[in-house]
Amino acid sequence: MDQTPDIAAARLSDDVLARNFADAHPPLTANQAVIEAERCYFCHDAPCIEACPTGIDIPSFIHKIASGNLRGSARTILESNILGGSCARVCPTEILCEQKCVRNTQDARPIQIGALQRHATDWQMAHGGQPFARAAATGRRIAIVGAGPAGLSCAHRLAMHGHDVDVYDARPRAGGLNEYGVAAYKLADDFAQREIDFLLGIGGIVLHPDHRLGREITVPALRDSHDAVVLALGHAGVRSPGLAGQDLAGVASAVDFIAALRASPTKDDVPVGRRVVVIGGGNTAVDAAVQARRLGADEVTMVYRRGADHMSATPVEQEWAQTNGVTIRRWAAPTHILGADGSVTGVGFAQGAPGADGRPVYDGLPFTIAADMVLLAVGQVFVADPLDGSGVSVAGGRILVDGAGRTSVPGVYAGGDCTPGPDLTVSAVRDGRDIAEQIHADLMSISFSQKA
Amino acid sequence: MADLRTILAGIRSPNPFWLASAPPTDKEYNVRRAFQAGWGGVVWKTLGEDPPVVNVSSRYGAVSYNGTRMAGLNNIELISDRPLATNLAEIRSVKRDYPDRAVVVSLMVPCQEESWKAILPLVEDTGADGIELNFGCPHGMSERNMGSAVGQVPEYVEMVTRWCKQYTRMPVIVKLTPNITNILAPARAARRGGADAVSLINTIQSIVGVDLDAMAPMPVVGGQGTHGGYCGPAVKPIALRMLGDVARDPEMAGLPISGIGGISSWRDAAEFLAMGATGLQVCTAAMHYGFKIVEDMIDGLSNWMDEKGYAALDDLRGQALPRYVHWNQLNLKFRTIASIDQDACIKCGLCHIACEDTSHQAIAKIRSGDERRYEVIDEECVGCNLCAHVCPVDDCITMMPQPVDGVQTWAEHPNNPTRGQMADAG
């Protein structure tokens, strides 16, 4: 076995890299969009609307595409979901709106809602600029911690209502997962940043990058300086599989690998192994595995402890990985990481199978997969440390909130991945929007009662 | 294999499908291609006097509906713009090579006896099987007192038909314009003039749309537009009604009819035949898809007739006519109600919202959790069929006729203030 870790950047030419990381699913042409839009039945009480966490009026926006009213279509989308452009690209529509499309029952081919949503929102960004105007200034100032989908959506809605908003983020760039945590080909052409520019076009929102909670800012201080505080902290940490050998050179977090790719305009400075093992079964694992292949890795194997149905990557995502030459091995638990001279050489696994109760039993023959790079993608976690001493209650690894997004501290709200619920971009957008409405209602009712 | 051979006013063709007088039959080249594709006959695009008319550039406008192109087609083209001699020579050539096909020549000359007297021998000399009098063209020619300007005046129809019968031995088919209140007036006039058959309908006066950038009716000709003649699938219902009116008229009994108006498939063809047509003419469908479509029209009609036990077209002709009645002959005691096949239902909710918003609140929406269920409220359902029409799933909503307790027409109905005085339903 070759003992030299074979990890290198620029395995492929810049041309090939550019092609590999371009838009994975190119937009519909105007003609395709109309043809697809005309397939929509314009259902009453449409199941797709209910399946969308942000509740976009899908039949209406699609009808407007068919009629040639793209400005109206985009507005219908954006008034429910200001990040409708990125959601159109990253949403697992196959388990949300498109899964509920009545066309599935009839001819097994749902309307391509995501692609149509992209068509309308792309039009808006190309032609229409910011479609919403700010209400008269309220004089209220709200602090939002976290410039991911939840924080940005909240900021936009608050700004619309005439509030002034400060958005703080620990990272140098806003966008959160959209900027750092999603495969480059899903949000190609710097879309995440263009969408943020579009969103900020509403006015009244000030971004404060490089502000980390617990260091430059604290909840009590923000509570003093602002009328309300929103915690949209997301998942700042990654879960550790706790394997022997995980400190060896060549072992990395899939999240960091994805972030490095997103930070690189050319991708030719991001090193990748020749043989890569990705441990995990979620979308992060798929994004890392496929991008490793597209960077030029010869063999990429994704290994998951249980079966296909248990993976949080949707069947469509799993198939996407396989189409990209990723081998998926299921029912195998990592036992240790092998190394030599301080570098990884492989990963040892216990082979399992579903037991009588469906839970895995790892009693098969152990095996090893040779690797010069191992990417860990066994989950991301909310990190509560920065909230120490703030009085914000945390339970079950998430911030405790009531149905309206209020935390245990008056005037402090929370939403997105740092609160309980599904970890989806679109759910975070909904949380942010709804918290904004709640804050607006709370602040305005206070002012009325004070006046009264 | 059903016998599709057709004889209309003595003109024979191997099948009832003729191409109507229009651009597809303007030239020998097109007509030969049509015959090679299997069309039973053509009505050659209307000939007029020399010098030929001049046609404009940009001639068609169309209605597209929800992705379907040319649901309706509108044209502002006039009659043949080629010299008369050219057309006559080509007609002779084609007829010589296709003796088994019907070659009928459409004619339109000024409304004076000498003009008709002059052109008829020239046409007869080509060997053509018959003539069709274009009394229908609703634009361009009508402003010159031809086309529908003649067709709208029964006296003129009768007069010109009589001239034609006088000056030619060829069968005379009179093409009727639908741009008139009562189609029976010109139809009866044609019969009085001695017509051997009538054909209907010609195109309907129309403005197909407005170009909202040019701010002019479409098609836009140098910044302006004009009204034209409408045809295609959208006009089929209008044609069927006029066909039925003529076919059931006792004064028209026995006069063959060539049915025209949006025929696009064998099913349309069967409907026209069932409503009393002897022959059929097609244009828009051919202009949309090319001549090849006749293959399925022939094949489909034949297969369907075999299935239904109609051996020949005569067996099928007019089968629906006895049941085409006036409204006041309908049984007011008849009741049908909608029934939803819950297994076929895809839960789109269109039946509910159509009934709820615009009809009789007879379809209930039932929600339990994520599950949707739409159920007909039998007591509220008036059997209007709207739900069955909006449902995108074939055969999901069926109208179920209920047991009928006798017959009561409007004439006998207690709400009818003239009850007892209505001697004749007609």
TrEMBL record, chain A:
Signal peptide: none annotated. Residues 31-64 form the 4Fe-4S ferredoxin-type domain. Gene3D superfamilies: Alpha-helical ferredoxin, FAD/NAD(P)-binding domain. One of its GO terms (molecular function) is iron-sulfur cluster binding. This is NAD(P)-dependent oxidoreductase. It comes from Gluconacetobacter tumulisoli.
Automatic annotation (TrEMBL), chain B:
It comes from the Bacteria. It catalyses: 5,6-dihydrothymine + NAD(+) = thymine + NADH + H(+); 5,6-dihydrouracil + NAD(+) = uracil + NADH + H(+). InterPro entries: 4Fe4S_Fe-S-bd, 4Fe4S_Fe_S_CS, Aldolase_TIM, Dihydroorotate_DH_cat. GO terms for molecular function: dihydropyrimidine dehydrogenase (NAD+) activity; iron-sulfur cluster binding; metal ion binding. Keywords: Iron, Iron-sulfur, Metal-binding, Oxidoreductase. Heterotetramer of 2 PreA and 2 PreT subunits. Belongs to the dihydropyrimidine dehydrogenase family. Involved in pyrimidine base degradation. Catalyzes physiologically the reduction of uracil to 5,6-dihydrouracil (DHU) by using NADH as a specific cosubstrate. It also catalyzes the reverse reaction and the reduction of thymine to 5,6-dihydrothymine (DHT). This is dihydrouracil dehydrogenase (NAD(+)). The gene is preA.
